[in-house]
Specification:
By secondary structure, the protein is mainly alpha-helical. The protein has a single domain, classed as ABC transporter involved in vitamin B12 uptake, BtuC (Orthogonal Bundle), CATH 1.10.3470. It contains 16 helices and no strands. Helix 3 runs antiparallel to helix 11 and helix 12 crosses helix 13 (274-293).
Amino acid sequence: MKEFANTALLSAQAQLTHASAWKIWEIAIWLVALAAIFVLPGKSLILAEIAILALFAISLDLILGYAGIVSLGHTAFFGLGAYAAGLFSIHVATEPVLGLLAAGVAAGLFGFVSSFLVLRGSDLTRLMTTFGVAMLLAEAANQAAWLTGGADGLNGVTIAPVLGLFEFDLWGRTAYIYALVVLIVLTYIARRIVHSPFGLSLRAIKRNSQRAEMLGVAPNRRIVAIYTISAAYAGIAGALLAQINSFVSPDVLAFHRSADVLLVLVIGGAGYLYGGLIGAVIFTLLRDWLSVITPQYWMFWIGLILIIIVLLGRDRMTRWQTLLPTLLRKAQAGKADGGKR
């Protein structure tokens, strides 16, 4: 029995090691993102926007794709992080890295407090609870004009050069590099989390929380932990937006941001982190392209694309990726059979 347990443990460790190893396609994605600094210098602002949206999507993917927690109010943490970074720069210090850390801590603390609300009820209850939290926070920001500026937004946000060396420019080059570095670092940390025993326990809770509890996993503790981490990630994404724009408006707490990030995960796929990055690229480019072609109806085309994804299914849409390898294997098998004859 002991030998069987040791064998199972070694097998699980080997699977985790294999899963956490960097894949070629992952490295290619980051190389393309870095190359965009030089290849697309005139698109730095939209690239920075994509990086922020990707980080926001990754934050939601941590709870949706791995823990199975559906949220319609993730914008609460995004907006709180934006306001925290703005207020930090006005009243404490203008260093952007310190502002990011402050925003992450503020959003993480709020996520920890609100996480106990999502422990109760079903998915529908969680949807409405998270939505209600976001609405309450948006109304509080609107009413507390003495602190947030109310409907006029938070003015006077001043951001110093990053680490005292790299000043934000009008073309957004520094903004994109800054957002990309933050995205890379936090994605690396997220990979370590989801490919750890903690990440495996989250998947077990998502599949069957009662069975996971019978195996000795404490679902509530892990849900609180990942919800807090997710909130901190979303807060840092909001802080990036506030620092790059040097302005914070109530729009950072608007419902459409929660809807947009859900659309991003639907397009890119949930449960493997890079769905947020791929979905952010596709969604942003589609939105900008369609809004130029049909300014009044671009949301119609986005909705049509989502319907097609749902009807066809992601497996069918990605089947083309296996077409060439399958043909090559068949050709090699045919040559081998011909040689034997």
